[in-house]
Design a protein that fits this description.
By secondary structure, the protein is of the alpha/beta class. The chain has helices at about 1-20, 115-120, and strands spanning about 40-45, 70, 80-85, 90-100, 105-110, 125-135. The chain has a domain at about 40-135: Barwin-like endoglucanases (Beta Barrel), CATH 2.40.40.10. It contains two helices and six strands. Strand 3 and strand 4 (about 90-100) form a beta hairpin.
């Protein structure tokens, strides 16, 4: 009887020792960076029109006339307000591509040429912006 109770006790201790480190270690939703920290600031650029028609990460074709964007961590479908900090003009874009490629680590988003025209940054090529999530997309 003592032997059976000892085995049960040891099994319980091993179970707690193995699984307790995982309690309360849930990871934050990757679709919500900046949600609690507020607006994000950084450099952005717009897609070169030569990508017109190329397939994006979400399967859509790039359309330079759409109000869409590429972002490193926000889920597809997330609506983001992009504000040009040089002139305070804004556009709301939908994330449909991921991971801006190349360039500075300060670059936080890439947008279509139509969105770039709306915030008046075509001549400069890249500007400092603030981005705010308007509505989160689905994972």
């Amino acid at each position: 009887m003592i032997r059976k109770n000892s085995f049960s006790f040891i099994a319980l201790v091993v179970f707690i020792w193995v699984f307790m480190p995982f309690v309360g270690t849930a990871q934050p939703n990757p679709a919500s960076p900046g949600a609690s920290s507020g607006p994000m600031k950084g450099i952005y650029v717009y897609y070169n029109d030569k990508f017109q028609g190329h397939v994006l990460a979400n399967g859509e074709k790039y359309d330079k006339e759409a109000l869409t964007a590429e972002h490193k961590t926000l889920a597809f479908g997330t609506m983001v307000k992009v504000t040009n900090l040089g002139n305070n003009k804004s556009a709301v874009v939908r994330v449909n591509d991921c991971s801006p490629h190349g360039g500075s680590k300060a670059k936080i988003i890439e947008i279509t040429s139509r969105a770039a025209k709306e915030i008046d940054m075509i001549k400069k090529g890249k500007v400092e912006v603030q981005i705010e999530v308007v509505e989160f997309g689905k994972k």
